[in-house]
Amino acid sequence: MADLSDFPITRRWPATRPDVLQLYSLPTPNGVKVSIMLEEIGLDYEPHLVRFDTNDQMTSEFLSLNPNNKIPAILDPSGPGGKPLGLFESGAILIYLAEKSGQLLPAANRYEVLQWLMFQMGGLGPMLGQLGFFHTFAGKEIEDPRPKERYRAESERLLKVIDGALAGREWIAGDYSIADIAIAPWLRTLRDFYKAGDLTGWDKLAHVPAYLERFLARPAVQRGLMIPKRD
């Protein structure tokens, strides 16, 4: 049985099954990327809920694994060379799990998949997140319309980029991959949580709405969206 006692995070979130991958997360668009991936590849794991309302992500135990205080993070007792590996950043975790399992990052179009993963990490996620801030949360207190419009316009542009890439394809890089697992949860958040579809021309997109529905229909996606279970 793996010994994870050297990792302080296990003191706050004890591993009941220390021989399987430990997931520290919350069902946010970034968090569910990893739970969906784990469900898709069938790798056994133990989820732990990191609650934002009690600032779990700011505790010394969580910061010991991710000093950037963001979810998700993982602790794999069977990392490279058979040694435990702690890892943060959802994109890095997706690549790691794809390589560990040999799934959802095919060699034939590896770099196309990675380019779309980086597109999400560097553009789509940050822009939709900022739009959500100004549209759904504190933005109502800001009289200057320029910040919200900046993120609205850029979000609309990025959606059009995705829409064009999906022409003639079911998935963003051809076959279903970690790129879809990265992109689609943010599309769901824009439409269903931020309620910002109308702001960004959602109904004018030819391919994105059906793409999201295909993604949400996958059984592994449906399971992963609910993990970790909220209290």
Automatic annotation (TrEMBL):
Entry keyword annotation includes Transferase: yes
Residue ranges occupied by any GST C-terminal domain in the UniProt entry: 106-231
GST N-terminal domain location: 18-105
Domain of life assignment: Bacteria
Claim: Acetylation is one of the keywords in the record: no
GO molecular function, one term: transferase activity
Key words of the record: Transferase
InterPro entries according to UniProt: Glutathione-S-Trfase_C-like (IPR010987), Glutathione-S-Trfase_C_sf (IPR036282), Glutathione_S-Trfase (IPR040079), Glutathione_S-Trfase_N (IPR004045), GST_C (IPR004046), Thioredoxin-like_sf (IPR036249)
SUPFAM superfamilies with a match to the protein in the record: GST C-terminal domain-like, Thioredoxin-like
Entries under Gene3D superfamilies matching the protein: 1.20.1050.10, Glutaredoxin (3.40.30.10)
Family named by the database record: Belongs to the GST superfamily.
Protein's name according to its UniProt entry: Glutathione S-transferase
